[in-house]
Amino acid sequence: MNRFYLLLLSFFSPLVLLAAEPSAFGAGDITSGNPYGLTKDEKLLLETEKKLKKVSTKSKLQATQLESLRERVDGLQSVLESLSRKAQTNKINLQNIEQATDGSLKSIEEYQKRLSLSIQKNKEEIDALKHLTSELTKSLEAISIDYVTKADYNALVTNVNNFKIVVAKEIKQIATVGTKKDTIAGIDLYKRAKSNYKKKLYTKALSDYEELIKRNYRPAHAHYMVGEIYFKRKDYAKAISYFKKSASLYSKASYMPKLLLHTAIAMLKTGDKQHANAFFQAIVAKYPNAKEAQVAKKYLDNL
Fold first, then answer.
1. Coiled-coil stretches, from where to where (predicted)?
2. Nearest of 142, 135, 132 to residue 284 by alpha carbon
3. How many CB atoms lie within 10 A of CB 202?
4. Which domains does the chain have, with CATH numbers?
5. Distances (CA, A) of 139 to 68, 208, 246, 275
6. Mean residue pLDDT across the chain
7. How far apart are CA 111 and CA 46, in angstroms?
8. Cβ count near 1 (within 10 Å)
């Protein structure tokens, strides 16, 4: 288009020079603001010049607009490149998130597997403990059948031996104290029995604990202490009988590990290795942190 304008200008330039020569009165001057007396060619030249000016102005405007559009396109291109970079970054982040999610899922699955194994192991241990408890219950029932008669027999023998062996003075003191027992409060009698036991006055302690049993004052503990006294006297059959009664009255007592241990030892002393073994195992399983469990393990190692 610019070439076309140049050709027009080169064609009409001689005419312009001719027309530029003024007349005596200014006629034919196409450069004046309001020319007059123009010839047909001059008028055509003037019109062409006006059109060329308009075309030039429009061309400059279009060039400006084109430059503006180019700048906008460049701006959009920059935005597009920025968005493209962000999209790539987001894609990488998404891949990282997916990888992290996969890792988390694997960790969760591994934790669930470990938890499942732990639950299964706990269940097996609980089942084993239940089985051992069942065996212990059976053993207690067997003890009730196997030892009651023997315990009664030994009780008679012990009573006879007590009259022969125990010092006559202690027997007289027991008789004297026995007349006063009914006037002593249960708590005081309990304290006295405990004190006599600590002093190793087992005959007096035995009498006091038997009175507590009659009164039904802390009977579980009283039976246990009577069992301990017979255990110390090596009257194992009778000790087992009282231990069994104590456990049946209250099986959650703090002294239960010691009661079970002495029961097991008493069984071993009377030749009942099978039930003794069951009791030693029960102590280790149910009271693993108790000192009695360590003693029970030593017995098990030697059985």
1. 66-100
2. 132
3. 19
4. 132-302 (1.25.40.10)
5. 103, 30, 15, 6
6. 77
7. 95
8. 7
> CB 158: neighbour CB atoms within 10 A?
17
Residues 247, 256: contact at Cβ < 8 Å? Answer: yes
- Tokens 């006055």 belong to 201
- The pLDDT, as a whole number, for residue 19 is 45
Measured at the CA of 121, the angle between CA 119 and CA 125, to 5 degrees, comes to 115
More confident residue, 50 or 9: 50
Task: Report yes or no: 219 and 212 within 8 Å, Cβ to Cβ.
Answer: yes
Report the b/e string of 89-104 with b at 16+ CB within 10 A.
eeeeeeeeeeeeeeee
The 10s digit of each residue's pLDDT in 88-102 is: 877 887 787 677 656
Structure tokens at 188: 């005081």
Name the one residue in this structure whose structure tokens are 């069994």. 244
What are the structure tokens assigned to 124, written together? 């097996």
